Amino acid sequence: MPVEPPVIVSSDPSSFPHSVLRDRHPAIVRRVLADHPYPPEVRQRLERLLQSDAVTPLEAGAHDAEQWSAWGEGMYGRSWYDVPFLWAENYFYRRLLEAVDYFAPGAWRGIDPFGPQKAADLPGPQELAELDALQELPEEEQAAGVVTAALWGNRADLGFRLVQRAEQPAGELLVDERKRMWEVLRGGAVVLVADNAGRELLPDLVLLDFLLSTGRAARAELHVKPAPYFVSDALAADVLAELARFPEGSAVGGRLAAALRDGRLRLHTEDFYCAPLTFHAAPEGLAARFAAAELTILKGDLNYRRLVGDRDWPATTSFERVTDYFPGPVAALRTVKSDVVTGLDEGAERNLPTSWRTSGAFALIQVRA
Ligand SMILES: O=P(O)(O)OC[C@@]1(O)O[C@H](CO)[C@@H](O)[C@@H]1O
């Protein structure tokens, strides 16, 4: 194991993490306030969240207060900018859910504060038709197409789009190890850890359908978040909303529904997916699921940070080495939207634009088998 560089914090005002806490989080709260006719006490709590300088613990009665008191040891009372970035972001979403009574008994319980944004991002008939049309291609081209679509679907999560212009230049793949992905898959079980709903989840579902219908996988689990998170992250309800978009007679939609019905495709979730932790701390049951799979596919930027550790790794750090703890073969499909990168060749960074780590214009397909 290489010497571990420090965990990323947000204290440097010129850093990406600082901009997330300073600009993105307030924009997210403002959007949630605009999207819902919340009562005054909820609006006040959201405003207070915006104003808070220091991190304070959850109310004692909160359903997961004990968990968060353990996860937050040493954090409370400190500035949001001084605690680890990954922790601060996770806790921000937890506080936001608290503010909108997401877990509290009452009428607002279970109402997704990001629901309207997600609904507006559901794929339209043209996107569905384009993905369905991939099936007309020869299998090898389809294989390339479904992976490319799932990869670039990750490019514009809704949190990112709140602060970034929507249209971006064409993307560039910095590492492409998809060949190894295909070599690992021999008709066993696959886990796909989803990231965003909407335009990312659709190609993820198409990828799962491709794996199942070509026999590259016999079974698949689609792991989703247990609660709203990072604005657009997919919940089981988002999967169902997406499936309902496939038109009558869609071959892909029909096969996915059949696979869910006969158990070849299963939805799964764990509280861990909303914990401020990396995969090093995956609970035993989840680690066993990863270990039993021929391949775990991790989607997105945040899952990448949780996989390699949210640290200032030099970009040439070996991906193989930092992921060798992961309990089974793992593939990361990720557009680069934060500072954490590993697995680049020496010198590869040299010709990239200064913003390459956060622009969403570059991507990685990395595999550790
Ligand atoms: O995981 P995703 O949806 O690909 O990206 C999540 C993200 O937008 O949120 C974090 C910043 O808040 C970063 O990890 C990344 O920029």
From TrEMBL:
Cofactors that this protein relies on: Mn(2+)
Keyword Transferase: no
Similarity comment: Belongs to the damage-control phosphatase family. Sugar phosphate phosphatase III subfamily.
Domain Damage-control phosphatase ARMT1-like metal-binding: 21-347
Catalytic reactions of this protein: beta-D-fructose 1-phosphate + H2O = D-fructose + phosphate; beta-D-fructose 6-phosphate = dihydroxyacetone + D-glyceraldehyde 3-phosphate
Official protein name in the record: Damage-control phosphatase ARMT1 family protein
Pfam families found in the cross-reference section: ARMT1-like_dom
